[in-house]
Design a protein that fits this description.
The chain has 158 residues and is mainly β. The protein has a single domain, classed as Jelly Rolls (Sandwich), CATH 2.60.120.10. Helices cover 7% and strands 42% of the residues. It has a seven-stranded mixed sheet, with no helix packed on it. Strands 8-13-10-11 form a four-stranded antiparallel sheet, with no helix packed on it. A three-stranded mixed sheet has the order 1-2-5. Strand 10 and strand 11 form a beta hairpin. The protein is globular.
Length: 158
């Protein structure tokens, strides 16, 4: 039987001691008219299922130089958690997110552009932003971050 590392290396979802290995990702090119394409951002996206409730997830990973990778670790009705791996100099242009968000720097250094000026995040630091706050994110060094989005409630039917 193959180990979790061997499965991950073959492109399957691997598991090590009950911790999901989310290392497998595939290249994704944004379709014409997509927000990422309009912003000139080339991303990679995950090709694995989201984590399940009560399932530990390994969030540590190394950024690849010159690449921006976004992996949705899980999404529920009220919450979404995304891992960003950003090569030095890569970033996301100014944008808004409808819900409140946090950006937690796991590794490297990030600059978050805000209306009041930039905020630099170091490993172990977290930044909270209100919903609809205009912001950009740029990796000053190869970086890993966790982004948590509180999803707004859908409008109630009339």
């Amino acid at each position: 039987m193959a180990s979790g590392n061997e499965k991950a290396n073959r492109g399957s979802t691997g598991s090590l001691g009950g911790i999901v290995n989310l290392a497998h990702q595939s290249q994704w090119v944004a379709p014409e008219g997509d927000r990422c394409a309009q912003a000139g951002v080339c991303c990679q996206t995950m090709a694995i299922p989201h984590a399940q409730p009560g399932q530990p997830v390994d969030v540590s990973a190394a950024a690849s130089p010159g690449v921006l990778t976004s992996t949705a670790l899980f999404k529920s009705r009220d919450l979404e958690v995304i891992r960003l791996l950003m090569g030095a100099g890569k970033g996301m242009p100014p944008h808004r997110v409808p819900g409140e968000i946090t950006i937690q720097c796991v590794a490297g250094h990030l600059e978050v552009g805000l209306d009041d000026g930039p905020a630099v995040l170091q490993p172990g630091q977290i930044l909270y932003l209100e919903g609809d706050a205009m912001h950009s994110v740029t990796a000053l060094t190869d970086a890993c971050a966790l982004v948590t989005i509180a999803l707004p409630a859908p409008p109630s039917p009339a």
